[in-house]
């Protein structure tokens, strides 16, 4: 029996900094939270358990990064240089660069190489207190390479102390071999790739890039129908570069989330609200492609659509491995509040992940997955720019990360 009372801590159990306990304790029994609350109210039955003193530090739920493309080959710094010289993201994509250039590198990489490159991007996220991450396919765009990506994502979840939820994004871009035949490629996605990968247990959800440079509403709907036939939840890259009505379509299929959303209109917000979809905002992509159209924050607030924040970690539009930096950007660029961004990387992100039962909040009966912070105020999580703040990560009651630098 592994029993511990974590004490001398400040607790933010829901990821809402307006709802905290100043001197709290968490009793953990075999990896699960047996009790949490004010230290003064600790029930007698836990009084004799071994104790761990957290020195008065803040504790939040482990963070959730609910939208990433973390598994891919290579990087696109050259394309970044082109964009600095004035070429737009859309132009690069139309000229055979962009997503398709990462497809070439991903197809060429062995599974072991892909694993090593991806693990190097996952580690900094985990060192920031992330305990659950979504990872999409979508740089293979053929069965074998999509399988390779999803297998790597699963392996990361098996070897690192993090929950990995996989998303099949076969409809991310048109592979060169299907040039001019987008409908045929969608047939391939729906009739061959998705069924095979789902049968292999590699798919937890299905995503589509619905956009002028991605897939149309009609094509996106076919992918969602194929997902529905397999009872797989859906989500969508929607209204990133234009208002295509993707979020409303996704809502009709009960989407977990619609993501990006800079060009979302009121009708789309209303549809998302009715479907209880989460709005996943991706400030890293907004920043990196120097977007100027802001996502409709006021509408999302007015209709009380839950908002999550994520890294969108990918080589083309958001080459970041820091969720804390995204929290900072969401406040500065999107004018989101500290409570909004903190809930956006905990409880709302867990909903977008489709795993709110396990992640995003701390409560009795749930896994003891939490982050311990080297801050005096929770607002610091959104305030510092690029400063490591996570002192310790506890997963299933065990310390899986501890930051310490030896002085000489
Ligand atoms: O989330 N929008 C489409 N997909 C990615 C970008 C992928 C890439 O450029 O490699 C995104 O922004
Ligand atoms: Fe994305």
UniProtKB/TrEMBL annotation:
Belongs to the metallo-dependent hydrolases superfamily. HutI family. Keywords: Cytoplasm, Histidine metabolism, Hydrolase, Iron, Metal-binding, Zinc. PANTHER family: IMIDAZOLONEPROPIONASE, IMIDAZOLONEPROPIONASE-RELATED. 4-imidazolone-5-propanoate binds at residues 76, 139, 172, 240, 317. Fe(3+) binds at residues 67, 69, 237, 312. Catalyzes the hydrolytic cleavage of the carbon-nitrogen bond in imidazolone-5-propanoate to yield N-formimidoyl-L-glutamate. It is the third step in the universal histidine degradation pathway. This is Imidazolonepropionase. Its cofactor is Zn(2+); Fe(3+). One of its GO terms (biological process) is L-histidine catabolic process to glutamate and formate. One of its GO terms (cellular component) is cytoplasm. One of its GO terms (molecular function) is imidazolonepropionase activity. Binds 1 zinc or iron ion per subunit. CDD domains: Imidazolone-5PH (cd01296). The gene is hutI. Its main location: cytoplasm.
């Amino acid at each position: 029996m592994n029993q511990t009372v974590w004490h001398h801590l400040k607790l933010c159990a829901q990821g809402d900094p307006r709802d905290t306990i100043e001197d709290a304790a968490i009793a953990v029994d075999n990896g699960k939270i047996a009790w949490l609350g004010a230290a003064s109210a600790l029930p007698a039955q836990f009084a004799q358990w071994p104790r761990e003193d957290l020195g008065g530090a803040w504790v939040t739920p482990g963070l959730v990064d609910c939208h990433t493309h973390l598994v891919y080959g290579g990087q696109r710094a050259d394309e970044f240089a082109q964009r600095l010289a004035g070429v737009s993201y859309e132009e690069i994509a139309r000229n055979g660069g962009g997503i398709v250039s990462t497809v070439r590198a991903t197809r060429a990489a062995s599974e072991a190489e892909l694993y090593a490159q991806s693990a190097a991007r996952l580690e900094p996220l985990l060192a920031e207190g992330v305990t659950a991450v979504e990872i999409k396919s979508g740089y293979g765009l053929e069965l074998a390479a999509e399988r390779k990506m999803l297998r790597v994502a699963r392996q990361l979840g098996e070897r690192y102390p993090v929950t990995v939820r996989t998303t099949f994004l076969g409809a991310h871009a048109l592979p060169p071999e299907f040039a001019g035949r987008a409908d045929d490629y969608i047939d391939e996605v729906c009739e061959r790739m998705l069924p095979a990968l789902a049968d292999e247990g590699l798919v937890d959800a299905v995503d589509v890039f619905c956009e002028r440079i991605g897939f149309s509403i009609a094509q996106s709907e076919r992918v969602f129908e194929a997902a529905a036939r397999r009872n797989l939840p859906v989500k969508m890259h929607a209204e990133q570069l234009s208002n295509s009505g993707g979020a409303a379509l996704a809502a009709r299929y009960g989407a977990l989330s619609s993501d990006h959303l800079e060009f979302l209109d009121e009708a789309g917000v209303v549809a998302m609200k009715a479907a209880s979809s989460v709005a996943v905002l991706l400030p890293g992509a907004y920043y990196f492609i120097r977007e100027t159209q802001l996502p409709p924050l006021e509408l999302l607030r007015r209709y009380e659509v839950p908002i999550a924040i994520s890294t969108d970690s990918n080589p083309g539009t958001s080459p970041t491995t820091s969720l804390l930096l995204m929290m900072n950007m969401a406040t500065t660029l999107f004018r989101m509040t500290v409570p909004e961004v903190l809930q956006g990387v905990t409880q709302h992100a867990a909903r977008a992940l489709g795993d709110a039962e396990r992640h995003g909040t701390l409560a009795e009966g749930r896994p003891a997955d939490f982050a311990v912070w080297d801050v005096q105020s929770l607002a610091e999580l959104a305030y510092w720019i690029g400063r490591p703040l996570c002192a310790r990560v506890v997963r299933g009651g065990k310390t899986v990360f501890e930051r310490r630098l030896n002085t000489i």
